[in-house]
Amino acid sequence: MAVAWTRTQPQAGGVALRLDRAGSGPPLLVLHHDIGSLERLPAYDALSQHFDVLLPQHPGYGHSERPEWMRSVRDLAVLYRGLLADLGVGRPILLGLGFGGWIAAEMATMAPRDTERLVLVGAMGIKPPAGDILDQALVSHIDYARAGFHDGAAFDALYGAEPSTDQLVEWDLCREMNFRIAWKPYMYSATLPHLLGAMRAPALVVWGEHDAVVPRSAGEVYAARLPDARLEVVAASGHCVEMERPAELVRLVTTFCNRG
Q: How much is the pTM?
Protein backbone atom coordinates (compact mmCIF):
# COMPACT_ATOMS: atom_id res chain seq x y z
CA MET A 1 0.00 0.00 0.00
CA ALA A 2 1.43 3.35 -1.08
CA VAL A 3 1.81 5.92 1.68
CA ALA A 4 1.14 9.57 0.91
CA TRP A 5 3.81 11.66 2.60
CA THR A 6 3.63 15.44 2.65
CA ARG A 7 6.70 17.67 2.97
CA THR A 8 6.80 21.11 4.54
CA GLN A 9 9.50 23.50 5.76
CA PRO A 10 8.36 24.91 9.09
CA GLN A 11 10.51 27.44 10.93
CA ALA A 12 11.94 26.58 14.34
CA GLY A 13 14.65 28.45 16.20
CA GLY A 14 15.01 30.79 13.24
CA VAL A 15 15.84 28.01 10.76
CA ALA A 16 13.83 26.08 8.19
CA LEU A 17 13.43 22.36 8.84
CA ARG A 18 12.45 19.59 6.45
CA LEU A 19 9.40 17.85 7.89
CA ASP A 20 7.78 14.80 6.32
CA ARG A 21 4.37 13.72 7.63
CA ALA A 22 1.98 10.86 6.90
CA GLY A 23 -0.81 8.82 8.43
CA SER A 24 -3.51 9.52 10.97
CA GLY A 25 -4.11 8.76 14.62
CA PRO A 26 -2.11 9.73 17.70
CA PRO A 27 0.82 12.03 16.85
CA LEU A 28 4.17 10.23 16.77
CA LEU A 29 7.35 12.30 16.52
CA VAL A 30 10.22 10.19 15.11
CA LEU A 31 13.71 11.54 15.89
CA HIS A 32 16.47 10.10 13.74
CA HIS A 33 20.03 8.88 14.32
CA ASP A 34 23.22 10.94 14.38
CA ILE A 35 23.92 9.71 10.81
CA GLY A 36 20.69 11.24 9.56
CA SER A 37 17.88 9.20 8.06
CA LEU A 38 16.92 7.68 4.76
CA GLU A 39 13.65 9.17 3.58
CA ARG A 40 11.53 6.13 2.83
CA LEU A 41 12.03 3.32 5.30
CA PRO A 42 9.53 0.45 5.63
CA ALA A 43 9.30 1.14 9.37
CA TYR A 44 8.16 4.72 8.75
CA ASP A 45 5.51 3.62 6.25
CA ALA A 46 4.27 0.90 8.61
CA LEU A 47 4.04 3.31 11.55
CA SER A 48 1.95 5.68 9.44
CA GLN A 49 -0.75 2.99 9.31
CA HIS A 50 -1.26 3.50 13.06
CA PHE A 51 -0.09 7.03 13.83
CA ASP A 52 0.18 10.58 12.53
CA VAL A 53 3.93 10.32 11.92
CA LEU A 54 6.05 13.46 12.00
CA LEU A 55 9.57 12.89 10.69
CA PRO A 56 11.78 16.00 10.84
CA GLN A 57 15.40 16.22 9.84
CA HIS A 58 17.30 17.71 12.75
CA PRO A 59 18.56 21.27 12.26
CA GLY A 60 22.05 21.02 10.81
CA TYR A 61 21.38 17.51 9.46
CA GLY A 62 20.19 16.41 6.03
CA HIS A 63 18.23 19.15 4.26
CA SER A 64 17.37 21.25 7.32
CA GLU A 65 19.16 24.56 7.80
CA ARG A 66 22.00 24.77 10.30
CA PRO A 67 21.56 27.01 13.35
CA GLU A 68 24.96 28.55 14.06
CA TRP A 69 23.89 29.31 17.62
CA MET A 70 23.11 25.73 18.68
CA ARG A 71 25.55 24.22 21.17
CA SER A 72 23.78 21.38 23.02
CA VAL A 73 21.32 18.54 22.58
CA ARG A 74 19.04 20.22 25.09
CA ASP A 75 18.93 23.24 22.75
CA LEU A 76 17.68 20.85 20.10
CA ALA A 77 15.06 19.41 22.45
CA VAL A 78 13.74 22.88 23.28
CA LEU A 79 13.58 23.71 19.57
CA TYR A 80 11.45 20.61 18.93
CA ARG A 81 9.13 21.48 21.81
CA GLY A 82 8.62 24.85 20.15
CA LEU A 83 8.01 23.21 16.78
CA LEU A 84 5.30 20.95 18.24
CA ALA A 85 3.63 23.96 19.84
CA ASP A 86 3.68 25.84 16.54
CA LEU A 87 2.15 22.84 14.76
CA GLY A 88 -0.55 22.48 17.40
CA VAL A 89 0.61 18.98 18.34
CA GLY A 90 -0.17 18.23 21.96
CA ARG A 91 1.00 15.23 24.01
CA PRO A 92 2.91 13.40 21.27
CA ILE A 93 4.40 9.96 21.45
CA LEU A 94 8.16 10.42 21.19
CA LEU A 95 10.14 7.76 19.31
CA GLY A 96 13.87 8.38 19.46
CA LEU A 97 16.42 6.37 17.48
CA GLY A 98 19.97 6.34 18.86
CA PHE A 99 20.99 10.00 19.04
CA GLY A 100 17.31 10.86 18.54
CA GLY A 101 16.59 8.88 21.69
CA TRP A 102 18.72 11.30 23.64
CA ILE A 103 16.74 14.22 22.20
CA ALA A 104 13.46 12.46 23.03
CA ALA A 105 14.55 11.84 26.62
CA GLU A 106 15.49 15.50 27.05
CA MET A 107 12.11 16.54 25.62
CA ALA A 108 10.29 14.21 27.99
CA THR A 109 12.10 15.50 31.08
CA MET A 110 11.47 19.17 30.27
CA ALA A 111 7.71 18.64 29.83
CA PRO A 112 6.84 15.50 31.82
CA ARG A 113 3.06 15.84 31.46
CA ASP A 114 3.16 16.82 27.78
CA THR A 115 4.42 13.46 26.54
CA GLU A 116 1.95 10.66 25.87
CA ARG A 117 4.52 7.86 25.66
CA LEU A 118 8.27 7.60 25.25
CA VAL A 119 10.06 5.01 23.11
CA LEU A 120 13.86 4.94 23.18
CA VAL A 121 15.69 2.71 20.70
CA GLY A 122 19.40 2.26 21.40
CA ALA A 123 19.35 5.72 22.92
CA MET A 124 22.45 7.78 23.52
CA GLY A 125 22.43 10.40 26.27
CA ILE A 126 23.50 8.18 29.18
CA LYS A 127 27.10 7.31 30.03
CA PRO A 128 27.15 3.49 29.92
CA PRO A 129 28.25 1.98 33.25
CA ALA A 130 29.83 -0.85 31.26
CA GLY A 131 31.49 -0.24 27.90
CA ASP A 132 31.68 2.95 25.86
CA ILE A 133 29.65 4.64 23.14
CA LEU A 134 31.48 4.09 19.86
CA ASP A 135 33.63 7.13 19.07
CA GLN A 136 32.90 8.13 15.49
CA ALA A 137 36.02 10.31 15.39
CA LEU A 138 38.12 7.14 15.35
CA VAL A 139 36.54 5.48 12.32
CA SER A 140 35.52 6.41 8.78
CA HIS A 141 32.02 7.60 7.93
CA ILE A 142 31.22 4.28 6.25
CA ASP A 143 32.63 2.15 9.07
CA TYR A 144 30.65 4.13 11.64
CA ALA A 145 27.39 3.71 9.71
CA ARG A 146 28.13 0.01 9.17
CA ALA A 147 28.71 -0.44 12.90
CA GLY A 148 25.00 0.22 13.40
CA PHE A 149 24.13 -3.06 11.66
CA HIS A 150 24.54 -6.60 12.89
CA ASP A 151 24.00 -7.92 9.36
CA GLY A 152 26.21 -6.28 6.76
CA ALA A 153 23.83 -7.38 4.01
CA ALA A 154 21.10 -5.22 5.58
CA PHE A 155 23.42 -2.20 5.35
CA ASP A 156 24.26 -2.98 1.71
CA ALA A 157 20.57 -3.32 0.81
CA LEU A 158 19.84 0.19 2.09
CA TYR A 159 23.02 2.16 1.39
CA GLY A 160 24.80 0.02 -1.19
CA ALA A 161 28.07 -1.86 -0.80
CA GLU A 162 29.76 1.41 -1.84
CA PRO A 163 27.64 4.34 -0.57
CA SER A 164 27.25 7.25 -2.96
CA THR A 165 29.31 10.44 -2.79
CA ASP A 166 26.15 12.34 -1.82
CA GLN A 167 25.64 9.97 1.12
CA LEU A 168 29.24 10.42 2.26
CA VAL A 169 28.82 14.20 2.14
CA GLU A 170 25.64 13.95 4.20
CA TRP A 171 27.38 11.78 6.80
CA ASP A 172 30.21 14.32 6.96
CA LEU A 173 27.76 17.17 7.62
CA CYS A 174 26.02 15.12 10.30
CA ARG A 175 29.34 14.36 11.97
CA GLU A 176 30.32 18.02 12.10
CA MET A 177 27.01 18.85 13.79
CA ASN A 178 27.44 15.96 16.23
CA PHE A 179 30.79 17.35 17.28
CA ARG A 180 29.33 20.82 17.65
CA ILE A 181 26.53 19.85 20.05
CA ALA A 182 27.52 16.50 21.60
CA TRP A 183 31.30 16.33 21.85
CA LYS A 184 32.25 17.10 25.47
CA PRO A 185 31.18 14.83 27.03
CA TYR A 186 30.82 12.61 23.99
CA MET A 187 27.22 11.60 23.27
CA TYR A 188 25.89 11.71 26.81
CA SER A 189 24.67 14.16 29.41
CA ALA A 190 25.95 14.24 32.97
CA THR A 191 22.63 15.68 34.17
CA LEU A 192 20.04 13.63 32.23
CA PRO A 193 20.11 10.56 34.54
CA HIS A 194 19.08 12.77 37.46
CA LEU A 195 16.16 14.27 35.53
CA LEU A 196 14.57 11.07 34.23
CA GLY A 197 12.62 10.56 37.44
CA ALA A 198 10.37 13.49 36.53
CA MET A 199 8.92 11.51 33.62
CA ARG A 200 5.22 10.69 34.09
CA ALA A 201 4.36 8.80 30.90
CA PRO A 202 5.09 5.10 30.33
CA ALA A 203 8.35 4.38 28.54
CA LEU A 204 9.60 1.55 26.36
CA VAL A 205 13.35 1.06 26.02
CA VAL A 206 14.36 -1.04 23.00
CA TRP A 207 17.86 -2.37 22.34
CA GLY A 208 19.34 -4.43 19.55
CA GLU A 209 20.84 -7.66 20.87
CA HIS A 210 24.12 -6.90 19.07
CA ASP A 211 24.27 -3.11 19.43
CA ALA A 212 27.92 -2.21 18.81
CA VAL A 213 27.38 1.56 19.05
CA VAL A 214 25.72 2.05 22.45
CA PRO A 215 26.22 -0.65 25.11
CA ARG A 216 23.07 -2.22 26.51
CA SER A 217 24.13 -1.09 29.99
CA ALA A 218 22.98 2.42 28.99
CA GLY A 219 19.53 1.01 28.21
CA GLU A 220 19.46 -0.67 31.60
CA VAL A 221 20.08 2.72 33.22
CA TYR A 222 17.23 4.26 31.24
CA ALA A 223 14.89 1.42 32.25
CA ALA A 224 15.89 1.76 35.91
CA ARG A 225 15.73 5.56 36.13
CA LEU A 226 12.46 6.13 34.25
CA PRO A 227 9.59 5.57 36.71
CA ASP A 228 7.43 3.39 34.42
CA ALA A 229 9.68 1.67 31.89
CA ARG A 230 10.62 -1.72 30.59
CA LEU A 231 13.51 -2.92 28.44
CA GLU A 232 12.94 -5.05 25.32
CA VAL A 233 15.89 -6.65 23.49
CA VAL A 234 15.45 -7.34 19.78
CA ALA A 235 17.25 -10.46 18.60
CA ALA A 236 19.49 -10.46 15.53
CA SER A 237 19.72 -6.68 15.40
CA GLY A 238 22.39 -4.08 15.85
CA HIS A 239 21.99 -0.41 16.76
CA CYS A 240 19.67 0.48 13.86
CA VAL A 241 16.71 -1.67 14.87
CA GLU A 242 14.30 0.29 12.66
CA MET A 243 16.34 -0.69 9.59
CA GLU A 244 17.35 -4.25 10.48
CA ARG A 245 14.17 -5.43 12.21
CA PRO A 246 11.48 -2.94 11.15
CA ALA A 247 8.51 -5.27 11.60
CA GLU A 248 9.60 -6.19 15.11
CA LEU A 249 10.08 -2.56 16.12
CA VAL A 250 6.71 -1.53 14.69
CA ARG A 251 5.08 -4.41 16.56
CA LEU A 252 6.69 -3.33 19.83
CA VAL A 253 5.73 0.31 19.35
CA THR A 254 2.12 -0.32 18.36
CA THR A 255 1.55 -2.86 21.13
CA PHE A 256 3.07 -0.55 23.72
CA CYS A 257 1.09 2.49 22.57
CA ASN A 258 -2.20 0.57 22.44
CA ARG A 259 -1.97 -0.90 25.91
CA GLY A 260 -4.29 0.52 28.56
A: 0.98
